[in-house]
Amino acid sequence: MPLRSSIRNVAIVAHVDHGKTTLVDAMLWQSGAFRANQDVAERVLDTGDLEREKGITILAKNTAVRYGDVKINIVDTPGHADFGGEVERGLTMVDGVLLLVDASEGPLPQTRFVLRKALEARLPVVLVVNKVDRPDARIAEVVDEVYALFLDLDADESQIDFPIVYCNARTGHASLDPDPESLGPDLQPLLDLILEHIPPPTYDASHALQALVTNLDASPYVGRLALCRVVQGTIRRGRQVAWCRTDGTIERVKVTELYVSEALDRVEADEAGPGELIAVAGIPEVMIGETLADPLDPRPLPVISVDEPSLSMTIGINTSPLAGREGTKVTARLIENRLAAELVGNVSLRLLPTDRPDTWEVQGRGELQLAVLIEQMRREGFELTVGKPQVLTRTIEGTLHEPVERVSVDAPEEYLGVVTQLFALRKGRTEALVNHGTGWVRLDVVVPARGLIGFRTEFLTETRGTGILHHVFERFEPWHGEFRMRPTGSLVADRAGKTTSFALLNLQERGSLFVGPGTDVYEGMIVGENSRPEDLDVNATKEKKLTNIRSSTSDELVRLIPPRAMSLDQALELISEDECVEVTPLNVRLRKVELSGQSRQTAVSRKARGLAAV
Fold it and tell me: What is the pTM of this model?
């Protein structure tokens, strides 16, 4: 078949924080995309506010660099398992992958996930060992671990015979020699390997137009943009194409604008041939997975398939007594429209109705993915009530199955005992334990996904903030039985008002507090974490009784322990089954689902006597 030798399409895949976006920065600089004196931010492709704050890539993005006469289209993918849908979608646009691995950390759970997807798609792999300048780099061992990972994923001989390049993405140096001292002055060895080992796009010269919509974007000038890969044929601006929708219908539409990527910009083009990654305007309701085809010979391509969600949570209107004070978007209609709009561009999310008209069930890949959605809505002015994350179970051959995750933990060796105990309480199975001789150990554990809800905070506490935790979905296994998730209870306000220093001074002996003095609270709001397993209703608004007699010994300085500031991620991890999170643009509050203390007590009494809830 004919080849487009002037184009290469490649995706960069890796575990989180192994240097994908930094490598793209170096390739852009060395290709002349920026002026020598231009002020460019680090990780230039991470343009979202949340991406900048969290230091991770959330959305897959594509750019292009010129190397000689060849245009290299690069797709930068997220490294976090929760955004695996972006990775799967990005792999449909390319003909090969750069697998980035940290020279010290080696392959981690997300490395396994992205490599498995690349091998299933029969994409050739170029291994990039990054950060070879680290003082704790163990280059030879990491390469051996990657070979072992290929064998573990049942790669065939042609896939295991991959080229290796060693680089320091931050400084933009690469070499084919594993010795860190032999790094070249630039990334030329890497770019040469891309041209040599990543095949150019193939096409059939007599085939009609086929372009697969793999992503969506929006422009304030031309509306929705469909990001496509042209698989066959040529697409031209101003011409009619057949829009093959997912419901099977075919509609004629006009391509009003056509763009191709050049560095960080989208450049207008009159036409684009096979293998090009393009953006098309003029189809306001186009969806991911649909096909743009020849109007005289419309042939739809297979729809993109992604892994099913493994976690769900409920999102509804804010029903607390403080609702409507801080946000501008509080009605059910606005929330439903916003959730439906999110589904358009996020193929790994699902939206289901519940038995309440003002609450919806949102299903996704993990806590972080759902927390990012809620944080985005919060910044847009929404007020929400968010329920506790729940794992999605399946019935397979009459047996209840639940998702299990593969967890990789790096921790100082003195904490090995306590980390092992944390996993044992959650019915985890340790499959590998490695001590690299540097004072750190690595555990590979398979644990039920529900055991990891709320695990990160406790893990960081027990390892004094030094532990590193990564996990990725492994498979479904039979239900592992019940286990206690949270050993502590909640301190729950029993009346509305403003908190006082006098009341909090007495309460801080009961546990850690989430609120300081002068904070508005209401009945059913959680003001702290009880050190004992049961919930405790408390009066956080009690004031000190004053008399008209002044005494030098009665007035004393009140020393309060600073309250724990709860982020959205921490709040979602902490809450129990009967609790939820109130999210507003200014505050994250924890509360009981049932605000009335009397109603909660009645429910507990009926449950203890084996009676149905009212």
Answer: 0.80
